[in-house]
Amino acid sequence: MSTQQTGTVVAVSRDDKHRFSKPIAPSIRLVAGHGVEGDSHAGATTQHRYLIKNDPTRPNLTQVHLVRTELFDELAAEGFTVSAGQLGENIATAGLDLLALPVGTRLHLGADAIVQVTGMRDPCSMIDKFQQGLKKALKHPDASGQVLRRAGIMGIVIATGTVSPGDDLRVELPAEPHVPLGVV
Questions:
Q1: Is 183 a member of any domain?
Q2: pTM score, two decimals?
Q3: Which domain holds residue 40?
Q4: Which domain CATH number covers 40?
């Protein structure tokens, strides 16, 4: 895992409708046990349409979606144009390898907000409607056949607070042994 345990919030987004991309906001308020205030994915139980079909009582482990902005540069080198909010994330970060964090990591954002990491986002077919071929770029097998996912991480809000671009992001790792991220 990367030894760097801090990062920066670059952009924040929310949308009260179930659309793929989310508009950039000057700040967002994270509400403990609920998610991003005013976002269509907020709630104690799952709000993702495909998960609701299977079990509408399922706890919402995907209240907050975070993506590292370094991904945007990687995708640009592969011929895609993606910027903050366009992958449906709530928080775009810089300086921290989000995908290397273990399950249960707590991300301290700004003065008060805390998000506990629950797993990786599994890119869905909506991504190809946004840009053809993007799903394959974000989810593909490596040389050994292991599926690599780069579409960010998901978490739940543990402590309420406001998050704005420029805020610090600090990592609090869980107790050992660390469990690698799976899909939520």
A1: no
A2: 0.92
A3: 8-25+36-163
A4: 2.40.33.20
